[in-house]
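Blinded run. Sample ID left blank on purpose so nobody reads anything into the name before looking at the predicted structure. Input follows.
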Amino acid sequence: MRASDTMPVLLILSIVIFTCLHLISVKSEGAQTCNSHSGGDTGKATEAILSHMTDEGFIDEDRANDGLYNRNRFNPYGNAVNIVALDSRNARKTLIAWKQIYDYQKRGGGFHGFYFFYGDGAEPLIDSEKDRRLTAQAAWMSLAISHYVSRKEISEPDRTEFSKMRDDINDWILKRNRNPDGGLSMGEGQYDGDLGYGQRTKAPIQYANLYATEHNIDAYAALKSSSRASDRREAGRLEQYLLGRFDLKTNMFDGGYKTADERPLDAQTWLVLALDETKRKQHRDKLNAALKEALRRYQITAEYKGRSVTGLHSGNGDIRGVWPEGTYGMIQALQAMAKGNEMAGDSAAAKQFREKARFYSQEMAKLQNESGAFIYDTSGAWNSGVPFDHMSGTAWSILSAQGVNPFNPSERLGSDATKCPPALNRPIG
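Blinded prediction complete.
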């Protein structure tokens, strides 16, 4: 056969091979990415967080003009979420800053709700809440340390030092008051205003007498992630308490002992994330129902910079617009329960949950500003109606894109999926 005779055959063969390889690549890409979720630019989000980091390592939560949030006010929870989201070098810098507070207080592992730090040569650490220390703030710092010490690249001295700090924090958590059902109190001290932790309790508030479900989830996850067997046993007791907060009448987890009429969004989503895969499968009827009901109750559509955005509000009444921080929690909970449903053989439910997660993630991308930061919420209710950059929500966007579960250092929920087609806002059956 002459060379000229083989040319058409080779050309056709080349086209067939190229087409097959392309289809395989597309199929593989779809399987890898479109089972996950996407939304926003994580590189810019990281840059935004670092731009809010002080020289000492504290992360300035936001830059609102007035109201509850303002500059130089540092929140342990917000900084802890950012520690989980950042690379090891920057995470270490922020952890060292908080260890200085821990050492400065000399009162064990309890943390206040907020701290002021001005760095002007005056008193370096100013407690903003005097005698008030909160279980949730301590639990999140414990969780952040668990994430940090699980990283292979950190030094053994760091692992030892921060693990000891985590143990002290957990000891403080376990000293809190217990209610008759076994739940932990929200902390110690008194607060003289309305409480914005999923509890619409009026002032004055005694933290020792309130037992928020959301804060018990935080404590449960912190103790469960501990290297100490005694902490993990206590986590097992809290797990039973939390699963018992499910209300069959409303198909949701309630707000807590003494505040059982409330249904905060985070009480539904965070428990899903705190449980491991086998427990999600075991309790999937309750967990599926809670997420579905939260979606039904709390999904709203708002406008931001001339664009329509669909997401979730908090369910407390304290956040009036679409709330990226809480919506990202739902995104991750949907991903987690997609895996749980798949393990139980319900592939249809798994597909619905993943598509809903992808839809919300694509919607949240609309709330990332030019700075790279995500806003607190679309209403700007705590800043005279002006939406403002918020670092906790920005950190949650990174965790969601990377599939990092902040409640479980060993779990990955999926990777970024920037090439997924637009998802539809279909109801979950």
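Unblinding after everyone has recorded impressions. The chain has one domain: 41-402.
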